[in-house]
Amino acid sequence: ARFMKSAIEADDEFDVIVLDPPKLAPSVSSLDKASRKYHALNRDAMNLIDKSRGGLLLTCTCSAAMTQKDGGQYFLSIVNGAALSAKRRVTLLRVSGAAPCHTQSPASFPAGAYLTAALFHVGPADM
């Protein structure tokens, strides 16, 4: 977060940003606070994407509470809200989860579905 703030102040811009923070929502009870952090991190990342050409943002969460809420749509809605705050248009290109080596058993261990990676195209800034 500190790096992004200093990069914004320096008017740095990037074509591609990978945003993979540590677990921000270790439980459902911390989801509201984590949602605000994910929103701020994604907003700041979008503000660093090239304003004239746009670019790519790969944003991730490893919080089961975030990944599983609303059938997996909650995290994506946080990113869309961040795009509105950043005044950037985003197009979702792909959503993926854990690699095949991460076995999952939704019936016996639903918390095993905790990884989400979403690739967005971030359009040019509205001038």
In short:
With 127 residues, the protein is α+β, with helices and mostly antiparallel strands. It has four helices and four strands.
Topology:
Layout: H1 2-9, E1 16-19, H2 31-48, E2 55-61, H3 64-68, H4 73-86, E3 90-96, E4 116-122
Task: Name its key features.
127 residues; alpha+beta; 4-stranded mixed sheet; 4 helices; elongated
**What is the CA-atom radius of gyration, in angstroms?**
15 Å
Coarse structural class: alpha+beta
Low-confidence stretches: none
Question: Which word captures the global form?
Answer: elongated
Major β-sheet annotation: 4 strands, mixed
Order of strands across the main sheet? 1-2-4-3
Number of distinct beta strands: 4
Our estimate of the beta-strand percent is 15-25%
Put simply, the count of helices is 4
What letter string, H or E per element, gives the SSE order?
Answer: HEHEHHEE
Tell me roughly what share of residues is in helical segments: 25-40%
Distance between the termini: 25 Å
The whole-number mean of residue pLDDT values reads 89
How would you describe this structure to a colleague?
35% of the residues lie in helices and 20% in strands. With 127 residues, it is of the alpha+beta class. The two termini are 25 Å apart. It has helices at 2-9, 31-48, 64-68, 73-86, and strands at residues 16-19, 55-61, 90-96, 116-122. The model has no long low-confidence stretch (mean pLDDT 89).
